[in-house]
Amino acid sequence: MRRYDIAEHLPLTLDMVHELDREGLWAWEILWSGKQANKNNRYFPYTETGLLNMIRAGTFEYIACK
């Protein structure tokens, strides 16, 4: 799992850079494991906002590490 700023890899206009300076556009690279994971669905990038929305909607469950 790795967090990265999507905007870091995109060509941006000056207006876009000014808006993103405050918050960034964050995403997570997630490598899934388990019986259902295969070469077609093992790696999946998600925006941070998208992940938070899926947790709120009950699609994903957040389990904190100890």
Describe this structure in words.
- The two termini are 16 Å apart.
- Strands 1-2-3 form a three-stranded antiparallel beta sheet.
- The mean pLDDT is 79.
- By secondary structure, the chain is of the alpha+beta class.
- It has helices at 14-23, 48-57; strands at residues 2-5, 26-31, 43-47.
- It is built from two helices and three strands.
Strand-helix topology:
Layout: E1 2-5, H1 14-23, E2 26-31, E3 43-47, H2 48-57
Antiparallel strand pairs: 1-2, 2-3
User: What's the helix-strand series?
Assistant: EHEEH
Principal-axes shape call: globular
Gyration radius, in Å: 15 Å
- Overall mean pLDDT stands at 79
What's the total count of β strands?
Answer: 3
Short overview:
The chain has 66 residues and is of the alpha+beta class. Helix content is 30%, strand content 23%.
Q: What key attributes describe this structure?
A:
66 residues, alpha+beta, three-stranded antiparallel β-sheet, 2 helices, 3 strands, 23% strand
